[in-house]
Amino acid sequence: MTYGESDIIDTIERLARTDVAALTQEQLDGVDQFHVGGPEAVARLLPGLRLGPGARVLDVGSGLGGPARQVARATGCEVVGVDITAAYVEAARRLTAGAGLTEQVRFLHTPVAGLPLRGFDAAYTMHVQMNVQDKHTFYADIARRLRPGARLAVYEVCRNGDVHPPLPLPWSLDGGDSFLATGDELCRTIQDAGLAVVEWVDDSAWAAQWFADLGRRLSATPAPLALPALLADGPARMLNFAIAVTDGTLTVQRGTFTAA
Ligand SMILES: C[S@@+](CC[C@H](N)C(=O)[O-])C[C@H]1O[C@@H](n2cnc3c(N)ncnc32)[C@H](O)[C@@H]1O
């Protein structure tokens, strides 16, 4: 099962040889951002979200919570993360408590369709829709939770044609939960779900460069704390992803949309 890791905090503490509350921000950045580009990718989404003081932001598929904590720290906004993987929600809460951000950032174990909250000032979703078969419903459920004029930022992985990359991948161990669309299909689906496109950018070259830099960082001695060490088959999943982005089998798309 993809996302089946149940001992994330214990693994981080074992590898770092310290309590999670004692980790440096640089150490956390290496493990709590589950997408290509790490915190730099989150920073690329922020301007499009147009967040002002007091805004309430929804993170759909919040994972271990690195992006939510970064958005909260960078903007002072309140962030609500939702995710369907219970162990990730629990790890996100523990890491958030360690960072002293529980007043500002919270995580709920629910699909977005089950979220009772409405009227968000902005939302974002990073590297999630690859797992979602019914993408129209997924984005329509997000759109319904936004106030009119609110922004949605997406940062997603797409296929570049009919060729599928070798498995395992970060979002799928056996392919049974991987539903890759092309960039054009994904952009159209989001618009069909009621969101007007502001920007739709192919970030693949930037992502490929980030992977190359990561490879250099991970070959240092001692190796820094890194997400692949926490995941089942992590190094193979990350390597397949890096190769597929670099050889053009996959693209990485960044977009901004506005709720009607
Ligand atoms: C590759 S991780 C990305 C996590 C986070 N967005 C990040 O970038 O650090 C994908 C996450 O999406 C979650 N997920 C998959 N399908 C989902 C769905 N339908 N609704 C909410 N979360 C979902 C998984 O549980 C996992 O935490």
TrEMBL record:
One of its GO terms (molecular function) is methyltransferase activity. One of its GO terms (biological process) is methylation. Keywords: Methyltransferase, Transferase. The keyword Kinase does not apply. SUPFAM superfamilies: S-adenosyl-L-methionine-dependent methyltransferases. It comes from the Bacteria. Residues 58-153 form the Methyltransferase type domain. InterPro entries: Erg6_SMT_methyltransf, Methyltransf_11, SAM-dependent_MTases_sf. Signal peptide: none annotated. Pfam families: Methyltransf_11 (PF08241). This is Methyltransferase domain-containing protein. It comes from Actinacidiphila acidipaludis.
